[in-house]
Amino acid sequence: MKPGYSKLLIFDFILPDTDASLFPSLMDIPMLAVFSGMERTKPQLKELLASVGLEIIKFWSVREDAEGLIEAVKKA
Question: Residue 3 domain-assigned?
């Protein structure tokens, strides 16, 4: 990725730290069964992307129980 030019956009559920809606929470089951993965909260997403040298610029979402967009760039 080219700093100052490239952006990574991820379209996924962004779970709240507590009291997540039922549907996004239930998506953990197929994520675990099929991909050995999980739905993540904002802090978990920040930690995951930071581990590969990316920094989250903004979380975009219309509402809490729908998918959102995560905008990330390469750390300077």
Answer: no
